[in-house]
Design brief:
There is one protein chain. The protein is an alpha/beta fold and 247 residues long. It has one domain: 3-Layer(aba) Sandwich (Rossmann fold). It is built from 8 helices and 10 strands. It starts with 6 loop residues before the first strand and ends with a helix. GO terms for molecular function: hydrolase activity. InterPro entries: AB_hydrolase_fold (IPR029058), FSH-like_dom (IPR005645). This is Serine hydrolase domain-containing protein.
């Protein structure tokens, strides 16, 4: 059998953490859910400018993507960060989707919104999907009026925690996307462990993303494929994951 193509996902970590830490956070999820994606975990471009919340939990170094004020309305080094990420994506991609936690999720949505409006990544294929964990919208009107000018059409799933201090901002970010899947969990500002229902939701969502990506790569094949067979595979995959997580 031919080895299946892996679609690339750029994974952006949270404030004053690291790519390695986000990789560890995502490892809470059963690997079968994302095993057909190639996950890339770069570090932020600036060393942490202060204390990290994961000191004593995960080893340094720690990084941040950009800096901001308490109201999250003024940003420092944001343009430099955006430029760096766009260059990174062109040189190391193309990337089919983005995954981000907290500051990384906020940045991911910004990149997708900006690309949709023709502001960035004009030399990179359209980003097709996003996984947001504890994300939020930028609040500067000059950014909002471009990035969220229209509903973002990329497929998206948003993890929103009942005890997350960014719960309401996460709701607002999800509302900026067309047809978002929202997965709620009882935890706080973290990448959550998934219960059986969440595993089923994320597995079915990722399976549909993969199907869309494969069909866009091979449009001539998609018409001849038996859709009921593909649906059965997706259901079987979800059921197997639920059994494995419950075990």
């Amino acid at each position: 059998m031919e080895e299946e193509k892996k679609f690339k996902v750029l994974c952006l970590h949270g404030f004053r953490t690291s790519g390695s830490f986000l990789k560890k956070q995502i490892s809470k999820w059963h690997p079968s859910i994302l095993h057909l994606f190639e996950m890339v975990f770069p570090d932020g471009i600036f060393p942490a400018g202060g204390k990290s919340d994961i000191e004593g939990i995960f080893p340094p170094p720690y990084f941040e993507w950009f800096q901001f004020d308490k109201e999250f309305t003024k940003y420092t080094n944001l343009e430099e960060c955006i430029s760096y990420l766009c260059d990174y994506m062109v040189k190391n991609g193309p990337f089919d989707g983005l995954l981000g936690f907290s500051q990384g999720a906020t940045l991911s949505a910004l990149l997708i919104g900006y690309q949709a409006q023709g502001k960035v990544l004009n030399d990179h294929p359209p980003i097709k999907f996003m996984v947001s964990v504890s994300g939020s919208k930028f609040r500067d009107p000059s950014i909002c009026n471009v990035a969220y000018k229209e509903l973002i059409k990329a497929r998206s799933v948003h993890f929103i925690g009942d005890k997350d201090w960014l719960k309401l901002p996460s709701e607002e970010l999800a509302a900026a996307f067309a047809g978002p899947l929202i997965i709620r969990h009882p935890q706080g500002h973290t990448v959550p462990r998934l219960d059986e229902e969440s595993v089923k939701q994320l597995s079915e969502w990722s399976s549909s993303i993969l199907e869309d990506l494969k069909n866009s790569d091979n449009p001539q094949d998609s018409k001849s494929e038996n859709s009921s067979d593909k649906d059965d595979v997706g259901v079987e995959s979800a059921e197997n994951l639920m059994k494995q997580v419950a075990a």
